[in-house]
Amino acid sequence: MRTIYSADHLLHQSPGELIYGEFVPAFEKPERAELVLKRVNEVRLGEVIAPEAFPLEPITRIHAPGLVALLQTAHQEWLGLGRSGAAYPYSWPTRGTRTDRVPQNLEGRLGFYSFDCGTPITATTWQAVKASADVALTGAKLLNAGEEAVFSLCRPPGHHAGSDHYGGYCFLNNAAIAAQKLRDDGARRVAILDIDYHHGNGTQQIFYGRDDVLFVSLHGHPDQEYPYMLGFEDEPGIGRGEGFNLNLPLPWGTQWPAYEAALTAGLDRIRAYAPEAVIVSLGVDTFKDDPISQFKLDHEHFTRMGEMIRTLGKPTLFVMEGGYAVAEIGINAVNVLTGFEGK
Fold first, then answer.
1. What percent of the chain stands above pLDDT 90?
2. Model pTM score
């Protein structure tokens, strides 16, 4: 299995995040991707290659041009206003406010296009974000060219980013961009399986009204867990997309037997859909020692996940998402991949 990796991910480093009333070092940090890459090389998973540089058009097929422009220019504008450090939003639209017009003020636009304050924009964030999307697009291109499985080692992650909003450490939705690329290159149906601990609210929002991309997500129940306001069982899709969104939320403390049953249900739904390709949003924050998650999976369970996903028998693109037990992230992520390959 080939791995797509760009060192440009190092250009994004959050100065910190507000969590539980404290400003703390960011959980999403460059070491995550570096340790996954180290493990890829240790187990000799396969060739590691750099991504191809793509134009913006595959990104704007998914994301609003205004969001893309903001990510490119926000920090320069921030400095131009006499500010320092990273650009953080702090005011968001809510019920009863105007959402039919984009604010002209920078702070207004930061709030308009985001949903939390945990995703700061630095001077070089855009370069990292664009490279992460290119990593995903390169993986999709290789899959379309006939490869059975590819690992896109994306960072920053992407599944919380919606068509017109960023947040949850995510700026652009790498999995969604890759799915659209596969569709544009001829795949009639694509399935996205999200096994990150947190619900892929952005991916759901992007495809909620479509029947050409099935979204299946296993995640912490939103009654207990971020992002709280999406990811419930009663969200099947809308219009043409009705029946093409499947959420499988699980409670805090979930162990392997319950997780395995949910994964089996999700895989059965994907089989029934009969996609031409599968994208796996590969988050490994379901690990028992993850600092911001509440599931209880262990190393061997990630291997089993890969084995189960392989039974779909479809070309598969793995797109890196979350996982914040940094010391173990390489073991857990690569266990999924080696399980898939039967190694």
1. 99
2. 0.98
